[in-house]
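Crash report, auto-generated. Payload:
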Amino acid sequence: MKINTVLATAAVLGLTAPAFAETEITWWHAMGGALGETVEQIATDFNASQDDYKITPIFKGTYEEALTAGIAAFRAGEQPNILQVFDAGAATVIGAKGAAVPVQDLLANNDVAFDINDYIAGVRYFYADKDGKMIGMPFNSSTPIMYFNEDALAKAGVTAPVTWEEFQTVTAPALKEAGYIPMSQSHLPWIFTENFFSRHNLEFANNNNGYDAPATEIKVNHPAIKAHFQALVDWKEAGLFEWYGTGWGDNATPFENGEVAMWLGSSGSFGGLQAKVDFPFSAAKLPYWEAVTAEPKQTFIGGAALFAMAGKSAEENKATAEFFKFLTSADTQYFWHQKTGYVPITEAAYELAQKDGHYDRFPAAEVGIQQLSLPAGEFTKGYRMGFYVQIRDVMNREYGRILTGETTVEDGFANIEAEANKLLARFAKTQG
Amino acid sequence: MMTDTLTETPTLVQPKAPLLRWRVITDHAVLIVGALFMLMPLVLVFTTASLPDAEIVKHGLQLRIGDQLDDNFTKAMFETSGFTDANSGLVMLKNSMILGVGFAVGKIVLGMMAAYALVYFRLRFALFAFWVIFTTLLLPLEVRILPSYEVIQGLGLMNTYTGLIVPLIASATATFFFRQFFRSVPEELVEAARIDGAGPLKFFIDILVPLSRTMIAAMFIIMFVYGWNQYLWPTMITTDEGMFTLVRGIKQITQVLEGTNLPEYGRANLLAIIAVLPPVAIVVFFQSWFVKGLTDSDK
Amino acid sequence: MKRAGFANPWLPILLLVPQLTIIAVFFYWPAAHAIQSSFFLQDPFGFGSTFVGLENYADLLGNKEYLKVAGFTVVFTLLVTFLSLGLALLLAVKADNVIRGAKTYRTLLMWVYAVAPPVAGFIGILMFDQSTGPLTAFFQSLGWDFKLGVVYSDTAFAMVTVSVWKQVPVNFIFFLSGLHSIPVAVREAALIDNRSASGRFWDVTFPLLAPTGFFLLITNITYALFDTFGVIDTLVKGEPGNNPMNLVYKVYVDGFRGNDLGGSSAQSVILMVLVLALTVFQFRLVERRIHYT
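Recovered output after restart:
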């Protein structure tokens, strides 16, 4: 009797249980530590929000390791549904036609509403093709901003500099006088090169920064940026600026310890700084040279985007689209913004954060998004160059030599230009 | 044993006493300095693992014991850092263990077989086989990692222990060591075995293998540690969190992107210590075999 | 030198097959693949490619940065090999000398052997940290403004130190066992013949350690060339910048990080050729001079 009841119940349950199969998708990312935990939280929330799809995030090492693992997997037909690709690697994926399904198509094909104008100005076209079609979904987006130690500035009797001229003549000498190293920065190619070009609206590479056709010539050997690096060398000599190597953290630590008064870092560094420093700090926009431009423009985003890899079934693509929908919802974006300090990528999420009073509590958290929302210029939507990871490596190497006095600004930039152009020519052949 | 007689040899010939004492003191001084040089960093990592993360970030390594040891240990061993709850310290420990043991055993077995064939048989293509094998000696997986990945994938071995272990075995270090060792085994042994009518298999199993046991122990330690310590290959080949190894886990925790968060130094330090312990235990456990007989060709 | 071998025709083949199979599938096939790739410039995803002949090689050999990396590799390999062998030999001889505490020293000196290279690099970063590293503080107290990651030579110093630190124990263990295997009779004879300790060492002990030394020379060169990868990668924090690096790390930087498959394959091939030459040299020249008992 009992057994029969059990069997009957089971049969009934079996019949009434919805005949569904969850579509499983995978997401390879490069977010270690606490960031990775936030990524996992988002995935868990997505899985809990519906029954049809299940996403599994997998940590694949550094940005470079994740990209290479993704490429190797793609060649072997084992690619994940979603691959996180960092800014410098985006050209590789976008350049390889057929590697990724443009996110705009993916959403349209799966009936998810998409309007590029929902996204904040600075992130719209960075991962888009020449026609303005969004290829990669911006994910962890940040931009370089200037953090400052409020105590230090008060002690020196100065405010955060708006221009480099002000920094040079007013801010830095006063901070030095007050016993601080006035400034450090954490990423020379990103902050003082790429964003130098966008902030001053200068052409960074030919063919419209590489958007219209593959870039064949980098315009890095420009008098304005050379003057900037010469200034850095002079400031370093005069004790107004310090460089602690290519490592990100090495340049941030002296600021966190209160030795350095101002630090150029990522808008995404906000959360970490809050946990680490015990002095009041705030942030301001990246300074610019008045001598170069009177109308400073918006900066590029850094960080990474999510690419929907090609070669997946329609159901899986549907699941990916649904996940992107979830990811770009105002709530998810605001959660991500609050947790990590990365900027929210949609206007709706930005408004939600404003309404919620997030920026009243943490004014510094808004600087990045304000800077990304500044007026755009001809050359501010992004840049696209092949082998850009190596080009950055070349920059880092030559900048290191310039700042340690191994070479001159003139020779350093000539080297970068020559080697980068060589790399661009090599890259052009890979597309043949 | 032999070692005991050895340690007494200095008393055989009596140098002047003060000179001897002076020498003993310098010997000890050198050893103490050496031991400090070797061990201080590990001690610092251990003590630092007992401090809160925020403090480690600010002040770096410190030689004092804090109160976070339990916490960090619990986090390191039992808290999962991945998505699927499958990669706690314990699971990673198990995977590292399988990788280490599997690699060591595979390498020793294959290496002994090949070395035996090369040393004890007259083969027409011996020289060829020799070079085919020994060319692999100095080319690590790192420089051929992408094609290797494609092979593994093609064979459907992603996320398997086989895929993790076998490609690492494709180099001839163990074969090389066993060849060296077999060549130092007195030839009279083979002669004697042949006179006794022992076949090649019997000679191998009954004589050569027992004779090699210290060598095997040494190889086991070396190979176990090597396998245990792999990083790049396991990162490539495993996507399943339940397959992660300890060394990979440490990297995941220490990786700091754009300074967004507080790296969990305490947990990483403890995982580092945990990652070091099993191989150390094996080294220390086997050390008498290891030291006594590694190149013991006098038997 | 020839062994009194067995004449069984099929057994040795059977014994060799497993090893040869694995080597063919996981070594020669990928290696052949690398050689082929080195003649192409190809899109990493595999969509496009152009046959460029020897251009990848020409680019490398005409690039002064690549030659600088090659130069550093030689210096680094020599330094790491000789320092770790030298220190280990010194410690082994001392550990063999002392009576009291011999076993304790032995145990203590073995520990670091088990540290994984990335973990060693991690420890190195903490020790040499610019603002909080104990060693940095120590050097500064000596008047040396040590800056990891800023000054090329300082970073090189840290790389050599960490690599040597990690490698001393294994050499120590081998040397110690080598010393223990020197027959008692030989030692006693040496004691009578040669009164000076250093003379005894160079005339008797050192030559008898030669087979062990040859083992170690090969393993140490391999280690310095290849296994230090984890140390270098961790110490430069994944950003090569203006830091020293060796050839293997360069392959990784261009191929794995930068996805330049053709260029990095050409580098792999160059490395293979160098290493092959080194192996032939070692077997042909060095091994012949060493006597096996």
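Post-recovery validation: Chain C touches chain A through 39 residues (CB under 8 Å).
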